[in-house]
């Protein structure tokens, strides 16, 4: 069975790392630094994972990229729904919050996992989820395709 | 794994939440596997391993702690360098406005995270900040 984890996480210094793991190995990663090198703070403020597993999930990076684009609607809706839940205030006792995506593509199960430090409020998480949903297609499109070697 | 390394507070909090009256080594290993599943990482740094074991109070508990810790991979391979200690010292010199004490292990964990270009997952409010 194939599994993947798409993740987006923000550090205390404002840097944001986005990436995609397939079966536990890194398939793509992008880090957007904000702070100067001597002011790095690698403590995580929050992270959001979109995780999936199942026989219908492609193991190849390019094929998974296309698969994630193909199912943008499902993922966008899930992130948007969760954003609304956080906007009205979630009473969270322990992080992370794990939420199973309804109507996941046939032959798969998907979940969204969110965690944050105590300094991050529910409204900020709501904005993170909304922004991720709105930019899902753009982010997945930014994963470069593997170059064919002739 | 999504570039995440667990700090001691995450391990300890999970250990305490999972704790049953008479656990055995297999159970504590399962607790660790659950944590890895939830956090999507099995990475720690060597100071975390040491700090966790420093909290052990009996030979029986040590065996359980070792079984728990066996699930995690020590990302630095027990290779703490002079540069890491100097970076930790630099972080220790940063006195926060609230005057809170920095913890030696936290400073070193963060120094290692900077070297290995990864992020630290912490449940600790006093994790050192600039």
What is this entry, summarized?
Chain A has 150 residues and is of the alpha+beta class.
Structure notes:
The complex is a heterodimer of chains A (150) and B (130). By secondary structure, chain A is of the alpha+beta class. Chain A is built from 4 helices and 6 strands. In chain A, α2 packs antiparallel against α3 (122-134). Chain B is built from 6 helices and 4 strands, in the order βααβααβααβ. Chain B has a two-stranded parallel ribbon. Chain B has a two-stranded parallel sheet with strand order 2-3. Chain B starts with a strand and ends in a 9-residue tail after the last strand. The A-B interface holds A 5, 7, 9, 11-13, 17, 19, 21, 24, 26, 29, 31, 39-44, 47, 49, 51, 94, 96, 98, 113, 115, 117-118 and B 1-4, 17, 38-40, 110, 113-114, 117-122, 125, 127, 129-130.
Question: Which terms summarize this structure?
Answer:
heterodimer; A: 150 residues; alpha+beta; 6-stranded antiparallel β-sheet; 4 helices; 6 strands; 32% strand; B: 130 residues; mainly alpha; two-stranded parallel ribbon; two-stranded parallel sheet; 6 helices; 4 strands; 8% strand
Task: Describe how the helices and strands are arranged.
The complex is a heterodimer of chains A (150) and B (130).
Chain A: E1 2-11, E2 16-22, E3 25-32, E4 44-54, H1 61-70, H2 72-87, E5 97-100, E6 109-116, H3 122-134, H4 136-141
Antiparallel strand pairs in A: 1-2, 1-4, 2-3, 4-6, 5-6
Chain B: E1 4-6, H1 8-18, H2 25-39, E2 43-44, H3 46-54, H4 59-69, E3 73-74, H5 82-92, H6 104-115, E4 119-121
Parallel strand pairs in B: 1-4, 2-3
Helix pairs in contact in B: 1-2, 2-4, 3-6, 5-6
């Amino acid at each position: 069975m194939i599994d993947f984890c798409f993740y987006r996480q923000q550090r205390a210094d404002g840097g944001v790392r986005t990436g995609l793991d397939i079966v536990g190995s890194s398939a793509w990663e992008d880090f957007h630094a904000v702070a100067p090198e001597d002011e790095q703070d690698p403590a995580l403020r929050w992270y959001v994972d979109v995780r999936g597993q199942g026989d219908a999930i492609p193991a190849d990076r390019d094929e998974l990229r296309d698969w994630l684009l193909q199912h943008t609607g499902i993922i966008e809706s899930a992130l948007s729904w969760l954003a609304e839940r956080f906007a009205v205030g979630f009473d969270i006792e322990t992080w992370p919050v794990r939420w199973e995506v309804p109507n996941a593509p046939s032959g798969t199960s998907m979940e969204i996992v969110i965690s944050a430090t105590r300094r991050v409020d529910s409204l900020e998480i709501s904005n993170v989820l909304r922004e991720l949903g709105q930019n899902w297609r753009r982010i997945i499109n930014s994963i470069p395709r593997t170059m064919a070697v002739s | 794994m999504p570039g995440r390394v667990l700090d001691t507070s995450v391990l300890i909090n999970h250990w305490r939440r999972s704790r049953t009256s008479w656990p055995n080594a297999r159970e504590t290993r399962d607790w660790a596997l659950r944590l890895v599943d939830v956090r999507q990482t099995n990475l720690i740094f060597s100071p975390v391993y040491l700090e966790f074991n420093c909290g052990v109070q009996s030979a029986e508990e040590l065996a359980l702690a070792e079984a728990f810790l066996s699930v995690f991979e020590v990302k630095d391979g027990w290779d703490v360098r002079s540069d890491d200690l100097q970076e930790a010292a630099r972080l220790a010199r940063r006195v926060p406005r609230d005057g809170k004490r920095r913890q030696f292990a936290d400073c070193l964990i963060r120094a290692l995270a900077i070297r290995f270009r990864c992020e630290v997952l912490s449940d600790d409010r006093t994790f050192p900040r600039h």
